[in-house]
Amino acid sequence: GSARDGAGRRSSRRPSPPGRVAQSSDALRLAALPAVLAGGGFALAAGFASALAGALASGDWQGTHIEPVDPRSERAAALVLVYPYGLVVDREGRRFFDEGGGLVHETWERLSRAIHFDAPGRSAWTVLDARLPEIAGFEGGIKSEVAPLRSDTLAGLAELMGVPARALEETISEYNAACTGDPARFDPGRCDGLATSGRLAPRKSNWARPLDKPPFLAFPLVGAIVYTFGGVATDEEARVLSAAGPIEGLYAAGE
Questions:
Q1: What digits encode the pLDDT tens for the residues 124-183?
Q2: φ, ψ for residue 49, nearest 5 deg
Q3: pTM score of the predicted model
Q4: Does 18 sit behind a cis peptide bond, omega within 30 degrees of 0 on the bond before it?
Q5: Which of 71, 72, 167 shows the shortest CA–CA distance to 112?
Q6: Nearest-CA neighbor of 89 among 42, 121, 128, 127?
Q7: What's the farthest any 2 CA atoms get from each other in the chain?
Q8: Are 88 and 221 in contact (CB under 8 A)?
Q9: Rounded to an integer, what is the distance from CA 117 to the centroid of its chain?
């Protein structure tokens, strides 16, 4: 497959140069990603370790497609895609991402990367309020079978989440104060331009209406790997190549 992000754009990561496969710091951090699908028990990568010893790199070893999922779920691809209608906070209760930066298919890749590469503990939370069920079809954006955490107060929700209550309350208070637009403009089906005002950083570019209607809800989020853009070089007969030529008895196939 071509190196494209979740919005269909080509990845900005540069392909690995010819030569032996290198285990860069980014590649090692990518290796820590959970898989969005558990697989059938046959993807053992037994030959991949052999390939790493002398194979030529192919593709973009720094690139991958990642999606935000609920780590509590036992389901495959337990995506949580309702974050544009709430806030995303780290485990310290602070925002770090523009939840309304675009339609969900345009932002979930950036969010997942921000969670995995930048957020403390490689995890985050999306916080919402009782207005979420008022959005027609919101259930389609939640593939997890595990119910969200729920509380009538932000302090109670913070306790369930394990984040500092004062920090979460301050984050949401500052955000609510910046929601000065007309809530009647809220339109979950398009970029509605309902943005935060003032110096709130990061700003929320769309769907910015206050979170003030209890009960308050929270889903945990982690980035899960869907597929990668890098692998080992092969010839027309699927033989894995080293600098000296095909590696005897080692074959590879894939996108």
A1: 999 999 999 999 999 999 999 999 999 999 999 999 999 999 999 999 999 999 999 999
A2: -60, -40
A3: 0.79
A4: no
A5: 71
A6: 127
A7: 67
A8: yes
A9: 10
